[in-house]
Amino acid sequence: MNKFQGTGVALVTPFNTDGSVDYDGLKNLINHLVEGGIDYLVSLGTTGETATMTKDEKKKVWAYTAEINNNRLPLVAGIGGNNTLAVADDIKSFDTTGYSAILSVSPYYNKPTQEGIYQHYKHLAEISPLDLILYNVPGRTMSNMSPETTCRLAHDFKNIIATKEASGSFDQFNQIMRDKPADFLLISGDDPITLPMISLGASGVISVIANAVPKPFTDMVNLCLQGEFKAASPSHLSLVEFTRLAFAEGNPAGIKAALKHLSICGDTVRLPLIKASSSLEQLIIAELDKIIQTA
């Protein structure tokens, strides 16, 4: 499981001004992240605006991401939903070439019971050709996967190898760390609490802001993983304001504004999301420039 230690990045999906996928921008982004020293890539998670993409677009983006990555870093594909059988079909038809695992969000909107969540992931684990990473993000799904359910799945299925936890609950993190199998990974799903989560034993993070600032963020994570929390603290604190601004008007509008400033890709998003306001964009740029100057 060492391939999922450290800094993973949930890739944005760059779009052209006409709304089509910007493959040149995606290539720029992947190379930017590889050169920035991150540890693995996550293609088409929430940050990739997957909810607004067609099946054909997803297949093309996954294939192109694998091609450009060229086995330089481990790759994870985001495949989830609230229709278990449809998600299973998507997983079974997924071209696994170049990919090491699947990140699958806990079912949203339906508000299933804990047993329903368990049975959902049980079905996926039994058919998946790749290892699975659970993803608990109650702020989006309106349904929390309990520590008991997470650890039950971790103990029952060897191919469920990790959870991306974005509940924000340290009580929940503590319970998972206490009760999980030794080789099961707890991964931070929130950039600003990565340092304290690693102090509890988390293996790292799947980050949004590292799209724009891969090296300073990864350097901070690596110090934490080495137990050098005092040394990591200044870097952690220097990223607090940028992180706050990046999410101020929703994800990924803020981080795309930063990537536009870096000339990596444009800031186009698909409705119902809209671009960051001009006032927020200027604040993001100012904070990003400050980080770059001090890196």
Task: Give keywords.
alpha/beta, globular, TIM Barrel, 295 residues, 8 strands, 13% strand, 46% helix
Written description of the protein model:
With 295 residues, the protein is an alpha/beta fold. The protein has one domain (2-224): Aldolase class I (TIM Barrel). Helices cover 46% and strands 13% of the residues. An 8-stranded parallel barrel has the order 1-2-3-4-5-6-7-8, surrounded by 6 helices. Helix 7 (170-179) links the parallel strand 6 (160-165) and strand 7.
What is the global morphology?
globular
In whole angstroms, the N-to-C terminal distance is 30 Å
- The CATH topology annotation reads as TIM Barrel
Largest sheet: 8 strands, parallel, barrel
Radius of gyration: 18 Å
* Secondary structural class: alpha/beta
Number of strands: 8
Helical run tally: 13
Instruction: Give the topology string: H per helix, E per strand.
Output: EHEHEHEHEHHEHEHEHHHHH
Strand percentage lies at 5-15%
Q: How many structural domains?
A: 1
What is the CATH superfamily label? Aldolase class I
Query: What low-confidence regions span 5 or more consecutive residues with pLDDT below 50?
Result: none
Strand order of the largest sheet: 1-2-3-4-5-6-7-8
What is the CATH top level name? Alpha Beta
Give the overall pLDDT as a whole number: 97
Shape-level CATH architecture: Alpha-Beta Barrel
The portion of residues assigned to helices is: 40-55%
EC number: 4.3.3.7
Subcellular location: Cytoplasm
Enzyme class: lyase
InterPro entries: Aldolase_TIM, DapA, DapA-like
